[in-house]
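re the bet — no i am not wrong, look at it urself. input seq straight from the record:
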Amino acid sequence: MISCKDIADTILDYLEDELDPERRARLEVHLNRCPPCINFLKTYQKVTTVSRKVLKDKAPPALFGRVMDFLREELDAASPHTKQERRGEGT
């Protein structure tokens, strides 16, 4: 069973289509049944879109790439699960 915490832990991988099909399907079942997680997903998408636009418009491409790499590393470090686990490969 997928929990709301699982949604929070895997949201970036979900949006970047990096989850295996089975894990993605389980997340989507949860999303279809959980209005708070749908709201979280929509908010995350908006924040990500605006942040990327601001960074892209104001920052040189090399800096934009470094910032995005840094954010991905921070997300991986902050999660109690490894990236493989979040993708469903370690379960």
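see?? The chain has one domain: 4-87. told u. also The two ends are 13 Å apart (CA to CA). so pay up
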